[in-house]
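SAMPLE LOG
Freezer: B-3
Tube label: C17
Construct: single chain, 95 aa
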Amino acid sequence: MKHYDTIKKPLITEKGTNAQATANQYYFAVDPHASKTEIKEAVSDIFKVTVTAVRTMRVRGKLRRVGRSMGRTAAWKKAIVTLKEGDRIEFLEGA
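STRUCTURE (predicted):
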């Protein structure tokens, strides 16, 4: 699996921003079939940082209703990546 297929996008949320400032952790939406090792290698190679830990979780899709029909949003996988002290990842605003 290619690195850019493993990491889909960074998750920029209030909770994630606080984790960046306090614990040097970054949140990413990743491929549902990616392992922790693949995620670690992808983040290390793409952003040129040292990854110390990777935590993953599966996020279930939510029920949504449009008119009378019910549906479900897609399930996805989230990764919380902890970097070595002193390493940082800069995301471009609006890109």
